[in-house]
């Protein structure tokens, strides 16, 4: 589990600490809003004359502006309808149904349909009739309450409420004001990518939903259509507006309009359209709303094409998501301005002229600021901010408070980390914790982590360190898959975390009272949190420090050991540098898994047993591996031993049934280790067996090395090249294979090899061509991939050869280790030479990092001392 944050929680970007601390002011507003909401239908019922005006042109008209100014999450806590939907929870009788997959995909259509229906109702019944308004308010409150009684969590707010998508349209992805969250105290994981937990996460995760696109694009037209209908009905704007010469605003006081709405129109008041009086108002209004919404959808879909073309010309990242985001932003801006061109006007324009004008300035400013703030936003910014915030939550500078502004705080943290030894040492660990937390919350996917390069650069985290972090987290992921208590979605984590807290409290009470566990209470708790039996068992297991999760993890390690052993056997059938490298990687993975097994079982095994376990598991003989696993039965609890043995047998059988080397390699492209994936893929490519399906999958891999290898193989396949190596320049994995073949680098780990490979460039030299000249400055080492390089010294007017170096050797290291002019000229021999030129700094880093390289260099230097004319 991620370590608990050790430092104070930082405010979100753009939000002050005081605001996060003092959200109590929301609570009184919530009660006032509820009181208004309850009083409103009573008022409407008894004061017919002002009902429509107060409800529609004041209260409802003010709502979008209020939501934008106050922020999404605060509104979600204030909303009176949300209160009604939560009454069953307060009464401890919450609903238990969960939204279906269909609803999850299509809920935008549902809430849009409810909103559409509500607008239509306004035009035919509730606009100017106090009694209808009262009934409408009562029905919608009851709908919220009944949904809360049937469905779990905030199903009403998330899936059905007609305002739910409007709140989002005006505030996504992160609104004018960033707010914390409005998550439920008892989370039941009722919604994927829950906006109450994190609005922006929900936005980016759902941006590609077809339903969302439809609603965002149709909404501005629907708003316009609603107000345009007043004109179409009356043939004049005077029906809608007030206080404009000759205008009446009669709609706000039209009791009983419903009685004629479904009948053919007879006069100007009952007409459907002014130009088609006979059409019933109910039909004319629904047609207007539908046509305008549809036209709006088509207009914005068309606009999206132009925005796409424009962005692709202007930006390098004009991808589909960005195009949709920009179009969403423009649609929201249009809808907001359209709404406030009409909403409130019949009452506003009755006030002294300065007030409506000031109000309109406020609207224009709010809309423009919102547009400017949201249009530039990208999912990458969100991912970076989330990770940065997670890093800063682990603020380690006790001598100062974190600044209010996220960027400033991050800057200070970064600078201090660089300057301070403690900070520098902790940076990678903090980074790992932060990546782990962000991944586990589902805010950033593994595939998106590689996009956070600028953040890594600010923290000066090397690519190889990042790769190590990701490899370690990939190992943990396997445990997550087999442990329901740690499954990866932010809702699931919140649900199980809140359930775990409640269960812990209950267990604490039981233990303190020395009493018996009350089953019915736990059942009640489970039903309130919608926790399954399996999840309950996992949480309990976790609380009680059980070994269930551990057993699953160890079983996976046993499987890794067996996979590695079987694959190495297969690779032995055909020797090649690529196969050697892959074997080395698998050996490392196996050693890692054996270590985890030994550590995991250290409580149960004697030292002797642990030693024989390590030796047995690393044996190439299957019988020895089986034997040590069988022996575990004597020391481990039955359940764990059975699980380990089953995992071993299953894996052994699965691996043995792979008919060819190609099948084995294809399986290894699923490894959690990116280096194994990349090299297995390359080996497949060498066999001409990297098919399109594999390549497509690997092109979307989270690791750059795998993607690069896949892209290369795809390119080769498209060019119809016969062999994967037949191309101008080596790709990283090829350089890694070549470097590893040089004895001096043969013991390097894949991360260090990748770093060297990236820091090197290859060159081809014709016979006699100089790699470097005697006397010139040099900061590169040459690793000879093929051919031969001669060491030449000046001799009078000519040169004489004093030594040579062949493939697998390196040369030119003296000028790097002890900066001085080159002491000799290096020339390709008569067969030419293919070399990797390695930057001095990368070489020195490798030397410092791995003692075996230093030993290799010393050995070579010693040999050269015996042959003093070497460079
Ligand atoms: S997912 Fe959890 S926090 Fe979000 S609305 Fe549902 S119950 Fe509340």
What's the SSE blueprint?
Blueprint: H1 17-21, H2 26-46, H3 48-70, H4 72-78, H5 80-90, H6 101-126, H7 130-150, H8 155-160, H9 164-171, H10 199-206, H11 210-234, H12 258-261, H13 281-314, H14 320-342, H15 345-348, H16 354-375, H17 379-392, H18 406-419, H19 421-440, H20 446-449, H21 453-459, H22 463-481, H23 490-513, H24 519-529, H25 533-543, H26 548-572, H27 577-600, H28 607-617, H29 622-631, H30 638-656, H31 661-668, H32 674-686, H33 692-699, H34 704-719, H35 732-741, H36 750-758, E1 760-765, E2 770-772, E3 780-795, E4 798-806, E5 810-811, H37 814-817, E6 825-839, H38 840-849, H39 851-866
Antiparallel strand pairs: 1-6, 2-6, 3-4, 3-5, 3-6
Helix pairs in contact: 2-3, 2-7, 3-4, 5-7, 6-11, 6-13, 11-13, 11-14, 13-14, 14-16, 17-18, 17-19, 18-19, 19-22, 22-36, 23-24, 23-25, 26-27, 26-30, 27-32, 28-29, 31-32, 32-34, 33-34, 35-36, 38-39
Low-confidence parts:
1-21, 481-485
| Overall number of structural domains | 5
Q: What is the tally of helical segments?
A: 39
- N- and C-termini, Cα separation: 54 Å
Helix content class: 55-70%
Average residue-wise pLDDT: 83
Q: Helices and strands: which structural class?
A: mainly alpha
Shape annotation: elongated
From the alpha carbons, calculate the radius of gyration and give it in angstroms.
35 Å
How much of the polypeptide forms β-strand, as a percent range? Answer: 5-15%
* Largest sheet, strands/sense/barrel: 6 strands, antiparallel
The count of β-strands is: 6
Structure ligands: iron/sulfur cluster
